Structures are given as structure tokens and as C-alpha cells.
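Q: Here's a chain of 296 amino acids. Please give me its 3D structure as C-alpha cells.
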Amino acid sequence: MITRIDHVMICVPDLQRGIEQYSRLGFNIYPSGTHPDNGTHNAIAFLQDDYVELLAVRDPAEQRAAAAAPGSPYADLAPFIAGGGGIRCVILQSDDLAAEVAGMRSRGVDVSDAMEGSRRTPAGKELRWKFATLGPKNPLPIFFIEHLTPVEERRKQAPGAGSHPNGAYTLERTCIVTPDAEAAAAVYARVLGVPQSPLQKGTVIMSHMAVFQLGPTGLGIVHPYASGPAADALERRGPGPFQALYRTTSMGAAARWMREQGLPPLARGVRNTGEQAMLAPPSEACRAYVGFVGPE
């Protein structure tokens, strides 16, 4: 079954500059290794059970070869980064990916077999997983992962794991913008094999949203009702993931850290839950909206 959102993949033109930007936002984020034969490398900030991933092209020729392979999940990576990057996809974690694939196919979902993936850390440790991607009949910006390396071992490979100046400790929600949230939510419900979530009003990103609760994390399918982050993302990049919201132990500590790094104060708003949230704009978060929610 789907147990949670594993992470969001934020693609950047230059990995080192991305690391610098997310360090200013208060994440302990470090180079995390290379993906063999895919021509990419990444950096990770590990939280409690999920993480922030920045991904960039390391070897353009190798990446082009990987992108040309049938069914490659990297097929649109270079054009996406050339367009500025941002959140490219949302990765959902499964505890039994083969069963997940079989279940999706029984619902008529176009999905790949579970395939092997890996990366090698700077210390030489190989981390392994299985993954599956949706096919052209279901072109949604999500894919699925089952980790073969235990989370405790993965956490050891990330310096500062679980301890960040901004106090972030878990992903709360990520949002995918679309022109019609209700229609899109019906598609996501069929793919995920869960009931369709009713629309609610999001007051920070100014959108109507259907939120699928996947374990402790929420996947929001949204469309804007007024000017704001969702409308900006839809106009600027079209449908797709645009926001990740992280729960922090202290909004005040996060704000102070960012101010000390020279960042302008983040915009604040009140969620439909009554909680305050603050949101880093694309100019400060590598073309993504990155939010924080929690106590002062």
C-alpha cells in the first residue's frame, strides 16, 4: 500500500547553487551522490522519515542516452530544467510495489513494471530501491518507490539528518495545480485506489483543493480561485507540482535563520486549519513554493 509521500524532486540547473539556496532556507542539505547511467546527481536534506531532494544533470551526454531509453522517467528532464526547473514530480512510497502495480493495472491504470534503481553516495555506499512510473495513458507527475535500503541506513548517509536550522522535521503536504481540481482528483483517486476527496478551500495558496491523506502526508490537487501562488504556478509553468509545505518546530526560529542569511521576510497567511504558515517564493526556492507551518 501507499504509506506516505516519500519526497518531492526539485530539479535545478546547478546543484551547488541549489544547495546554497536551500541552506539559506535553513535545510542541512548536502551532495548525496550520483545515479549510475542516468547522468544525474543530487543533494538531500533528510528529515524524520522523508527528505528534500535537489536533482541536476551531471553528465549531459549520459543523461541524453538515459532519456532516450523507452519508458525512461528522465525523458523530459533536460527540457524541464531548461525551462527553469522547480518541483518536477512527487514520489509516493509503497511497502509492496509489485502489489501496488498489480492493483493499479486491475483498475486500468497504465503503469510500468517495478524496476531497480540505485545511487552511490560520496562515501561509496550503494542505496537501492524499486520504482514504477505511470505510462502515457496516465501522464500524472507522480511515481512510486519501494526502498530496499532501510531508512536508518539511508539517514546515516545524510549529514545533519533530522536537525535543521529552520526546525523542519516532516513534509506536511505537497500540492499539484491543475485547471480543474475535481476532475483531476477523480483520476488521482483511480490511480491511487482510494475514495475521491471532496474539495476544500485553501486560504494560503488561494485555491480549491482535494487533499488525499497518504499516511502522515497530504497530496493536494488544486485549482486557483483567486490570484496567489497556485494561479501564478499555473500561469507560469502550467499544470504540475508547485508547492511543498514542511512542519517546523518553530516558525520564529525558521524566520530568524532566514533573516540572518539575508533573505527577505517570507509572506505569511492563515490556513483553513487556523494555523499560520509562511511561504518562500520561487525566486528564493529554485522555482518552487516552499512553505513552513508550526508553532511560533
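Q: Can you summarize the key feature?
A: The chain has two domains: 2-156, 168-293.
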